[in-house]
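Quick bug: Anthranilate synthase component I family protein output formatted oddly.
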Amino acid sequence: MSLLSVPSTTGRGEPQRAGRLRVQVESTARGPSDPLRVYEALSRTRRQGDVYLLESLDGPEQDRLSAAVGWGLLAELRVYADRVELTAGPELADALSDALAAGPSRSAADGSGTRVWAVSGPDEVWEILRRVQDAFEVDTDVPADTFAFGFLTTLSYEAAWSMEQLPQSQDEAGLPRCTLALFRETLWYDVPTGTVRHLSARSGAWPADTGRPLEDVLAEAASPPAGDADVPPAPAPRTVRDSVDEETFAKRVDRCLRHIQVGDSYQIQIGHRIDVETDLTPGQVYRRLRHRNPSPYMYLVPWAGRTVIGASPELFIRIENDTLSMRPIAGTAPRAADPAEDARRVAGLRASAKEQAEHVMLVDLCRNDIGRVCVPGTLDVTSMMEVEPFAYVHHLVSTVTGRITAATDIWSAVCATFPAGTMTGAPKLRAMEIINDIEDDTRGIYAGALGVVDVRGFAMLALCIRTAVHDGRRYSTQASAGVVADSTPAGEWRETLAKMSATYWALTGEELLP
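Here's what came back:
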């Protein structure tokens, strides 16, 4: 590894350099295809980590917007507490190093192929990401209000420690706070219209794709192998371990209640983790999860040598045409097969004073966060506490929007809004301090965000909830419950199990709740 320093810049992260890396993105219309089948066909002949999948299967129309299959990993940027690492081919690594160093790279990578920049504070982290994003000049006919070329992006919960002054948090060994992965090829599915486009990025900084022709991949995806089960059976797990027992969790809830009683906080999201060892592959777990819990933000993606499998119902942020949107979810009622009973449950959800109070508090958090980076007068709650149907539940959902200022980019928008208040409680920073004091384990990707960031400004990131992470040996899944003044330990414990139930079933074939 080579250790490079990051020079300071002036203005909005604009380094002085001779030019930008030109990328030609060719957009070709393709016929309908199943994103999961395409992902599986590509994965059979490509190395691990070279393909990712994003799907949108169920939920409100406002969220069922796009799906993507990406392949041909070109570069990966990993952000840690004290450094940023870049792994890429020689030409692309040189070009990005030039962008980061505002001139010729002052050090060559060693045999590992990884270059490292030491960072001494949060500002340097986001400056590096800005420079990497701004290093590319894209030539394409794809509209700027959607994805053409950019990064599969992950933010772990601990990324907040690179944004705010918070008590020291111990990052999980070897796991980055943020990753940006750049892929050469993308199949982009526009869900409302049913259109599919193949986006192929060409540049002199990387070679052309030498893998199987896409026509062959699509043909294989259209004719899956015989015996390929849509819902693979789950063998009995080898081991199941909870990070805490119910008694310990109850004590943690009591601690939260004491903080609330003395006015430290109004709500605190406290949780736990379940680890499962099983013979199921990540692809099999994903198939089971999408069957049990089809959601608007589904993902099966590589992350720091691991695999992340998720079925999130909730958007973190979307930036489109300079409009920043958040859609906080707070309040849930299970759906019923009987229409009359289903209507009663919806009415009960709407009438719940507890759910309303929590929801209003979290909407206020979103308003405050977006207000930090939007043009005065443009902040708007376009929908408030709407009951929106998902596959198996109804949720209370609001939509908060604002037009970002000329000085705001994706990274300043992320820093203003991350982590989502629905993952922390309120007030956000004090709730995070309490969580950090009470929870023993790091959260990692759980309660973070995942999605795509186009180099031209479009972004769509989902909250990482209803998620499992596979480290090659075991799967981990986490959930939290929002403790408020009238919470009970038993009720909050049950809430965490309910939130983990679909993922746990996907991993084990067993139910967490009767």
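Actually, after a second look the formatting is fine. Residues 239-277+314-508 form a domain with the Anthranilate synthase fold (CATH 3.60.120.10). Closing.
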